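Predicting holo structure, WQD bound.
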Amino acid sequence: MKGRILVTGGTGYIGSHTVVELQSAGYEVVIVDNLSNSNADVVDNIEKVSGVRPIFEKVDCLDFDGLNNVFAKYKGIKAIIHFAASKAVGESVAKPLLYYRNNLVSLINVLELMPKYGVEGIVFSSSCTVYGQPDVLPVTENAPTKKAESPYGNTKQINEEIIQDTVVSGAPINAILLRYFNPIGAHASALLGELPNGVPQNLIPYLTQTAIGIREVLSVFGNDYNTPDGSCIRDFINVVDLAKAHVIAIDRILEKKQKEKVEVFNIGTGRGLSVLELIDAFERATGVKLNYKIVGRRAGDIEQVWADPTFANEELGWKAVETIEDTLRSAWNWQLKLRERGIQ
Ligand code: NAD
Ligand code: WQD
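Done. Tokens:
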């Protein structure tokens, strides 16, 4: 056993895939999740995939005493991956205080408890949303951050600053901030994946729900952008590739390989794909015809963004390897499995 890692938000979409990768790398995982956006049966599915049942505590990261008890109960936690957050952009505009409270106070609680229990490092889930519409593409980690488009995006910028300021203040903490681009797809077993609440706001769950007949038609938001086919461009990163970046980041912290106490990495493929190209790739990869229509632009959308992942490639030795076709097939298989399980 390589050591004990606390994963907040570990029953969520990215968290559950990361727990499996941590386990297969030899780490013991303690999950903390309040199940506000996930289900307890994810723990069973993690066990089915990895053969190891992670420790699970239903605790809210806003509950300082509850979190303290987890550190006290599971001694020797070496590092934390902090996924727990609210993440729906539209909801954050409607309920900004909920987002500021959940995403800021949760992180503050974690950071306050780390030195008390001798926890060496934290890997934090940040987002390409901090770049807004970059002036130069592909975007590197040195690009300036832009005023956030939503309270959600703002929480990611403030979270990054909170971590920086805490480390600068002399707290004995090392941090790696991973700026994810657009995570998509599911585990190859189809036992883990993204389970949106209600009507999906993100492209892939809406697309697979349309393909299976839950939704009638996928609306493509705009074909009049300044891009080759007029639709927006994103860097779609396979969730298992993304999960593996977390294991490398944890190894790096624990093996003391960091060059700075706070390091920032783009986690993307380096390839921009338009929404229309993605639909085409889905149809080719699955053989399923998709019902879609072009509608007007969605407020707040960035026209185009994709990563320059060179720093992560060279410094972490991490690279996205999954093809977009395999990734889209995995998302489709997950949707089919959900129907088989009578969930969606
Ligand atoms: P998710 O909603 O599937 O997972 C988050 C998990 O955190 C959920 O299981 C939820 O129940 C839990 N949670 C929320 N608030 C909590 C709290 N106060 N205490 C305990 N548990 C809590 O989301 P995800 O897509 O897996 O995202 C994980 C992280 O990555 C989030 O911080 C998100 O902002 C960030 N991120 C996600 C994306 C994306 O497109 N999915 C992109 C960039 C960054
Ligand atoms: C992708 C593209 C839409 C739905 C969001 C957050 C970002 C990050 C990732 C966390 C856009 C288009 C979508 C639909 C469509 N999350 N689209 N029809 O907006 O790039 O990023 O998730 O940090 O912060 O903002 O992702 O999946 O919503 O959209 O045409 O029904 O698909 O316009 O161009 P987005 P998305």
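DSSP finds eleven helices and 13 strands in the chain.
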